[in-house]
């Protein structure tokens, strides 16, 4: 798409050195095919021990091989993008298109108002003409506390923006900047002390109000917006609330340097129990409509409330794609990576986001829409199809409906309320052909796929300085629940009319279809994984070989596939600047996700298909108690609240431990070592090592983050029963 020609604002290049990778991938593919041949030609005879176990291994390995082929869509021909912001500045100066920024929050108890406020301040301080920025905060919880926090920010932002631009600080989230371990420039130490004092005083006021769950007396007289709240309002039953807290047209709305402030709008769309609200998708669609009435910018950025801006140049980076004269008119959205600022150094929860960012998504060039950190062309988000006659963005923003000076804020607020009513979408195409799609837990992925189906191109841009930083789950329970929701929604999408192989056939590249399927098939891949972590260990206990003996000519084939894939996985992690221990934790968490999150999501999807259940949208908590955070810093796994998923984890861990111990005892005492069981010993031993934190949490820990005692007893009983049944 892009090149280095004169005037180009970005370039796209294929990564070098892929010949060696293609040779490696071809050799692994050959090895995988040979393992299938071995399985198919060595099936035990009818009535022979292990026949059904062997056939199950064949099916599981067919699934693993097919899935490995899908993952090559990311790695076969990876590309990367580079922007030229200096050319953008030379060509356009401050004559850049306006941008609407959406910040979404839903529950002040798990998404604290201070967190929301910091994200808002970070995007208000972008290195971009402030009169071109309009920030919209969607509060789906209709929280007076969130409104109060934003009102507090309207005064502080005057000082904060001036400070950021005067001293060019990064990041521009106050909380993140003040807590940065890096030494701040001593040349502006006095200014820093002053702004820190102002911020912490404001933060204390907000936290006091949050702790008491009410706004301090007298504060509600400071703005007319507080009159919207009364004792009858609940998060699920309230009128539409629209308040323009900072009006960019107001000549008095300036920072300490006299520069215009960005527009800031608070929105809580109307909710009534009898009308579906469609969760985050409904909130975003209300924002699209409300923003079209107030600012109607041709570019929209949406971020989650915990995903603050870590780079002040993200908007300019995105504009390099949209404003490129050769390819820009076809780009529908630019997706920035999701990154997190609270991962411990050893990555105890095995967050593989670095692999996704540096290898998978980056390798495609095109991108799924991930729901946050994404810049959209408004017309693509509103369902318009791409054609060669689409105007360049620079022509589009000249046609943007501008607010007339005589239109008062109260007039705009009143018109916007109508657009945020709970009945507005009735008998319309909102949620179908217009805006964010409804009816799925992963509305973002479906929306991105639909935009691509309309002919728009997408960009995955991974800059050297991370564009956005958020908060990852701090307990194992939160992580497993989050992945359950994702995998459930993705698998539902695969089974729907939006299946990429059907919906995308002939319209998007096969490589892009395969990449979507890689994530959408998380849930069914739980079954071969569960089989592989239980049956070989039980067969080991009974002395039934499922792999070739060491002296067999087939043995090196299995060894090569195992070592080759794992060695490349390790090399990939090291290339992404992860440590060996971090890679090991990734393997552990991949196992836990597949055997728990993905398995339960598969069960739920099956139940829903039978009409025995329905989907739910669970918000991941953004806060953790002090003791849990201390354990996280020490690299100790926090199991959090009790969960049925832990029963599966514990049972699998105990089953493999019992099988390994019993097999070793039998080998030493009774039978001696059988070389045809070597790979099963290795597999069982690796599973035991991966599950060491589970044993530690069940038997050795005494803190509140351990696994419950009853779970240890339950898992031991289940594992012992499974072992006994396998022997008879």
UniProtKB/TrEMBL annotation:
<dbReference type="GO" id="GO:0016020">
    <property type="term" value="C:membrane"/>
</dbReference>
<dbReference type="GO" id="GO:0030244">
    <property type="term" value="P:cellulose biosynthetic process"/>
</dbReference>
<feature type="active site">
    <location>
        <position position="444"/>
    </location>
</feature>
<dbReference type="Pfam" id="PF03552">
    <property type="entry name" value="Cellulose_synt"/>
</dbReference>
<keyword id="KW-0328">Glycosyltransferase</keyword>
<feature type="active site">
    <location>
        <position position="140"/>
    </location>
</feature>
<feature type="transmembrane region" description="Helical">
    <location>
        <begin position="677"/>
        <end position="695"/>
    </location>
</feature>
<dbReference type="GO" id="GO:0016760">
    <property type="term" value="F:cellulose synthase (UDP-forming) activity"/>
</dbReference>
<dbReference type="GO" id="GO:0012505">
    <property type="term" value="C:endomembrane system"/>
</dbReference>
<dbReference type="InterPro" id="IPR029044">
    <property type="entry name" value="Nucleotide-diphossugar_trans"/>
</dbReference>
<feature type="binding site">
    <location>
        <position position="304"/>
    </location>
    <ligand>
        <name>Mn(2+)</name>
    </ligand>
</feature>
<feature type="transmembrane region" description="Helical">
    <location>
        <begin position="645"/>
        <end position="665"/>
    </location>
</feature>
<dbReference type="InterPro" id="IPR005150">
    <property type="entry name" value="Cellulose_synth"/>
</dbReference>
<dbReference type="GO" id="GO:0071669">
    <property type="term" value="P:plant-type cell wall organization or biogenesis"/>
</dbReference>
<feature type="transmembrane region" description="Helical">
    <location>
        <begin position="596"/>
        <end position="613"/>
    </location>
</feature>
<feature type="transmembrane region" description="Helical">
    <location>
        <begin position="21"/>
        <end position="40"/>
    </location>
</feature>
<feature type="binding site">
    <location>
        <position position="140"/>
    </location>
    <ligand>
        <name>UDP-alpha-D-glucose</name>
    </ligand>
</feature>
<keyword id="KW-1133">Transmembrane helix</keyword>
<feature type="transmembrane region" description="Helical">
    <location>
        <begin position="554"/>
        <end position="575"/>
    </location>
</feature>
<feature type="transmembrane region" description="Helical">
    <location>
        <begin position="52"/>
        <end position="70"/>
    </location>
</feature>
<keyword id="KW-0808">Transferase</keyword>
<feature type="binding site">
    <location>
        <position position="111"/>
    </location>
    <ligand>
        <name>UDP-alpha-D-glucose</name>
    </ligand>
</feature>
<keyword id="KW-0961">Cell wall biogenesis/degradation</keyword>
<keyword id="KW-0472">Membrane</keyword>
<keyword id="KW-0812">Transmembrane</keyword>
<feature type="binding site">
    <location>
        <position position="280"/>
    </location>
    <ligand>
        <name>Mn(2+)</name>
    </ligand>
</feature>
<feature type="transmembrane region" description="Helical">
    <location>
        <begin position="516"/>
        <end position="534"/>
    </location>
</feature>
<protein>
    <submittedName>
        <fullName>Cellulose synthase-like protein</fullName>
    </submittedName>
</protein>
<feature type="transmembrane region" description="Helical">
    <location>
        <begin position="707"/>
        <end position="727"/>
    </location>
</feature>
<dbReference type="GO" id="GO:0071555">
    <property type="term" value="P:cell wall organization"/>
</dbReference>
